[in-house]
């Protein structure tokens, strides 16, 4: 695909409108993530077209969809959602998130200082200016903090196993994931006819339940909700039995998280399960990351003329990874059997980039809106757009008994 097509896909996706400074023009992100997302959604449609539940979505538009619900806008060096910052380090730039209730304490541990409750960022910024990106990455991984240096893209292309398309109508999907990437994967599989069961624990509900409710409804409409307590023997037995019954498992945490519950991905794969593992940087890494900091650290940032990086879109690594995971889940290894898809968000983003992209092209005023130049013509900059939920999302744990009894699993 030529650069002109990539610019057009960026403009129509809604992501250009979310990229740049609030008081400046929208900027065109580097690389071809919007085009890649559209290719993924086309592939998903091809794989489901001959079934009773064909899936037809615009992958490029999905990348900006959450902002259509939340009203997020471009904010330059602050992420659209406000929880992540791009800040200079001693040798470059870094993306640092403060999204979870525990993150202010983790940031305090990072800088070895008590942070002001009203605004921790000045102290964090001062610490970063005195430390390298490598030091930040090392300490962030030890602390479980979502932060990392902004790397120069390397155009790496991850490879996976040789697979063939398969229908998922009627298959059981057990979804342990939260927030956006994993739930988007589960949502697309549900549209393709799979039976999706969302699993949460009493102490760790999906944080997206506290977010924009219509968007949560969209991703979880028609699914079943199960709550099980891994702190009890009965809860662990039920979790193991649920995984044993699953055709596809989706999880988006470091491997040791589910291992503590007694769940073994390798054993499930050996029995024929498709296991979708979504992490920030791969199963061998202890890095924690969210959509904004992972995308930026992989090099997906817009650049001003002086090289200053600005966020692209809204947590872009999340929906891009969700689409990638769904396309993988719609396949099986050639010859059959189970498979573990180790999907690193960082690698998914990096695969869409080119080395040394240079300053980002700016949109220009075009009538009452903005437009970008692509191949000698002006392409309007679209606003993020939304699909509407088709059903209600279940209350937490609403189907625990129903699902377990239907699978012959004792209810704890």
What can you see in these coordinates?
- The chain is globular.
- It is α/β, with parallel strands linked by helices and 412 residues long.
- The model has no long low-confidence stretch (mean pLDDT 94).
- The chain contains 16 helices and 16 strands.
- Helix 1 (3-13) crosses helix 2 (33-48) and helix 5 runs parallel beside helix 6 (121-129).
- It has one domain: Crotonobetainyl-coa:carnitine coa-transferase, domain 1 (Rossmann fold, 3-Layer(aba) Sandwich), CATH 3.40.50.10540.
Summarize the structure.
This protein has 412 residues and is an alpha/beta fold. 34% of the residues lie in helices and 17% in strands.
CATH superfamily: Crotonobetainyl-coa:carnitine coa-transferase, domain 1
Structural class: alpha/beta
User: What is the typical, i.e. mean, pLDDT?
Assistant: 94
CATH fold naming: Rossmann fold
CATH architecture: 3-Layer(aba) Sandwich
Portion of residues within helices: 25-40%
Treating each run of at least 4 consecutive H or I residues as one helix, how many helices?
16
User: How much beta, percentage-wise?
Assistant: 15-25%
Terminal CA distance reads: 53 Å
Low-confidence stretches: none
Largest sheet: 6 strands, parallel
Instruction: Name the overall outline.
Output: globular
Count of distinct strands: 16
